[in-house]
Design a protein that fits this description.
The chain is built from 10 helices and 12 strands. With 267 residues, the chain is of the alpha/beta class. Bound molecules: NADP nicotinamide-adenine-dinucleotide phosphate.
Length: 267
């Protein structure tokens, strides 16, 4: 058991696969009580049954794009264990297509899932956190939430929006004992679904994701970041081009812009 996580009640979206699944296993091993959400009930049951303490895991199926019914999931989640300590916003999809070939409908779809669902759940959960005088939002953004490269406009726009919203939220709610961590993962090896410019899903994943950091190792880094209450931790390979890109963008933005235009050709 772990002093920080033991008996903490943690709601994870995107828990049926990849980063969310690995995080669920690690948190259960540390004694956390979990609420696992995504669309696929059978996959959520599988993740639950593979947890160290399945008796301390509830599943709460939901579709993050079902905006009319999303808010109503919050009281249901709170009722499962009586309260919530940590909300991990993690569900999402990837996107790859040139701007010139991306339908506006795709931008809206990515924004709905990767941005609006996060803020809908946050707004609905906030009164509970404020009333308790504690609470913690952990938000899975991406390195693409800090930089822009070819083929990623819809995804990068939604992830950048998360930084704007959750940085403002952090500045507002620290006074109530509420914390915010925005995770910026590099390439993580997961089966993430990727939408293309016409709205179809493609199995043509980036070779970077296929060669990415393991979700299990990412989960360990995320757990450390939560314990440290880090503001915006990078998650991924210690030495890798994503981390280098963050560094160059931050300290040499002009150089970054020239390099990405010249060498940022998608693979
Ligand atoms: N993999 C990477 O390289 C990488 C890098 C940076 C950031 N990220 C971010 O990490 C997060 C997790 O992605 P992952 O890589 O672990 O991919 P993943 O294995 O495909 O996990 C995505 C999760 O989101 C859920 N999801 C997708 N659409 C949903 C919907 N409409 N409603 C509810 N849940 C939905 C999926 O579950 P269901 O299909 O069961 O609904 C799944 O549990 C995402 O926010 C992604 O942007 C990933």
């Amino acid at each position: 058991m772990d002093k920080y996580f033991n008996n903490k009640i943690i709601w994870i979206t995107g828990a049926s696969s990849g980063i969310g699944e690995a995080l669920a296993w690690e948190l259960s091993r540390r004694g956390a009580k979990l609420i696992l959400s995504s669309r696929r009930i059978a996959e959520l049951e599988r993740v639950k049954n593979n947890c160290a303490h399945p008796d301390n895991v509830h599943i709460l199926p939901l579709d993050l794009t079902d905006s009319a019914n999303l808010e109503a999931k919050v009281p249901l989640a709170i009722a499962l264990f009586g309260h919530i300590d940590i909300m991990v916003h993690n569900g999402g999809i990837s996107q790859r297509a040139l701007v010139a070939e991306t339908d506006i409908a795709v931008h809206r779809e990515v924004m709905e899932l990767n941005y609006f669902s996060y803020i809908t759940l946050t707004k609905a959960l906030l009164p509970h956190f404020i009333a308790r005088g504690s609470g913690y939002f952990v938000v899975t953004s991406s390195v693409m939430g800090k930089i822009g490269t070819p083929m990623r406009a819809a995804y990068a726009a939604a992830k950048h929006a998360l930084h704007g919203y959750f940085d403002c939220l952090r500045a507002e709610v620290g006074q109530y004992g509420i914390k915010v961590t925005i995770l910026t993962p590099g390439y993580i090896h997961t089966p993430i679904a990727t939408i293309s410019g016409d709205g179809s899903f493609t199995s043509n994943k980036s070779e970077h994701i296929n060669a990415g950091f393991s979700a299990d190792k990412a989960a360990l880094q995320i757990i450390k970041a939560i314990q440290n209450e880090a503001y915006e931790p990078y998650i991924g390979k210690f030495i890798g081009e994503e981390r280098l890109a963050l560094f160059v963008k931050r300290f040499l933005p002009g150089l970054f812009t020239r390099l990405i235009s010249r060498f940022g050709t998608p693979k």
